[in-house]
Amino acid sequence: xxxxxxxxxxxxxxxxxxxxxxxxxxxxxxxxxxxxxxxxxxxxxxxxxxxxxxxxxxxxxxxxxxxxxxxxxxxxxxxxxxxxxxxxxxxxxxxxxxxxxxxxxxxxxxxxxxxxxxxxxxxxxxxxxxxxxxxxxxxxxxxxxxxxxxxxxxxxxxxxxxxxxxxxxxxxxxxxxxxxxxxxxxxxxxxxxxxxxxxxxxxxxxxxxxxxxxxxxxxxxxxxxxxxxxxxxxxxxxxxxxxxxxxxxxxxxxxxxxxxxxxxxxxxxxxxxxxxxxxxxxxxxxxxxxxxxxxxxxxxxxxxxxxxxx
Length: 310
Known about the structure:
Structural class: alpha/beta
Number of strands: 19
Strand content: 25-35%
Number of helices: 5
Order of helices and strands: HHHEEEEEEEEEEEEEEHHEEEEE
Distance between the termini: 70 Å
Helix content: 25-40%
Largest sheet: 19 strands, mixed
Shape: globular
Radius of gyration: 26 Å
Number of domains: 3
């Protein structure tokens, strides 16, 4: 009775569409059974939950079928999605920009199509990441990385599922641990350890924006004089000044961080993997080594200015 009364009142009071009515009804149905399940745990024990769990499963399955049938539709946004806290995605992220102020968890993986930009101020956990640009302040954990451009200020671990890193460029401030790096087809895969990858990424983006603004400003200056031209040039000059100040500030922060890293105890810079294939390039603090044969297993670090393979 509680479910029916709420559903009828909502339909009459709001005059919503059938699509929204079904969506809210299913959500209310699911939330009601969640409360019943919680109450049953306290009063009657877990074995009494079987009927409620079965009904809850039916509700979830029915809601999924509504999406499959097109009655309910998922929402898409034409702008980047930015969250000040943690983000958890139950499905797949496709060709979009997602930025989390905390951790980013993508249980279904990321299919970037060379357009996705995934950023997190803490950690990233994903089943797989393909053809994406990844920016993470702490650590990156994934089942596989394929043709990705990765900037990580912590550790990169690819130690579950397929445990594979193929193609792209992976930059990590500390260490990289994976099952397989490269491929039998000798796909070029680059791994660079040390430095400040995230700061390098931000500098790279700012340099690109400044270069594009300078080109647009030069192009606009050649146009005939008009109020629209003056307004556009004023905005571009302002943005150009802001970006240059950001770049100068970022350069100072990088210098300070580099000085602090020299004084502090340096973390071990190491590549550890079960197999590394030819075509893989490893760089540690500016020293590079290109693998010309298969190593299995492989541990690489820097000793006396040279990359040591074990």
